[in-house]
Design brief:
By secondary structure, the protein is mainly β. Helix content is 0%, strand content 62%.
């Protein structure tokens, strides 16, 4: 029977990790319109004359309307096969891949305001916005694309006809992290971690008021 490794000793370990082949940040703008019939049954029409102090807020969700957390992975679909293209970078030839994909973001618009004197808040159904992308990056066959939305800015225009909501114009300014990755097994010579000490409150040391040595004792 082999001895168990010491919890504080060093040992050669094999670990599964995700190797990043390339990483870029993309920024883009996309605009779309959504008809009133696509927004779901809004209890209060934002264009009703009895509505005042109307404000809109937008946030990204999944298809079911669950709000996305920062840096959540976005599902994508590659729209064509990757093709190789040579580039000369700093005097060295590098083979990159032309990667094309599309993703669908879902935007929920939240209306708030007053109907007469009664506050209200209501939300639309998730509004799908499909965004195509194409770029060159180091993404050879066998790597996967991982896309995360790192920042988004959204503006909404409410379109009214005869005091009724007809459509919304939505503009997204999206920043996204795109990585090409694959799973690898790496060998590390390291030591095992130990638990940290429990934090406890302690009485502070007595504080001595600062002196004025320039004038006294001089």
């Amino acid at each position: 029977m082999k001895n168990k490794p010491s919890p504080i000793g060093k040992e050669l370990l094999c670990m599964n990790a995700e190797k990043v082949y390339d990483w870029v940040i993309l920024q883009g703008n996309v605009s779309t319109s959504a008809n009133a019939s696509e927004l779901g049954g809004l209890t209060i029409d934002p264009c009703d004359p009895s509505v005042s102090k109307l404000t809109t807020e937008t946030f990204l969700t999944d298809e079911d309307g669950n709000r996305l957390s920062p840096n959540d992975i976005i599902e994508i679909t590659e729209s064509q096969e990757r093709s190789d293209r040579p580039f000369i970078i700093d005097g060295t030839e590098v083979m990159l891949q032309n990667v094309s994909f599309q993703k669908t973001l879902y935007v929920v618009v939240e209306f708030s305001g007053l109907k007469y004197t009664t506050p209200f808040v209501e939300q639309t159904l998730p509004i799908p916005i499909t965004i195509p992308e194409s770029l060159f990056m180091c993404a050879p066959n066998g790597t996967d694309l991982v896309v995360r939305i790192t920042d988004v800015d959204c503006t909404v225009s409410v379109n009214c006809t005869d005091k009724s909501l007809t459509s919304l114009d939505i503009t997204l300014n999206v920043c996204q992290s795109v990585q090409s990755v694959t799973e690898v097994t790496v060998e590390l010579f390291t030591k095992f971690c130990e638990p940290r000490d429990v934090l406890t409150e302690q009485c502070p040391s007595p504080i001595i008021p600062p002196q004025c040595p320039v004038i006294f004792p001089g």
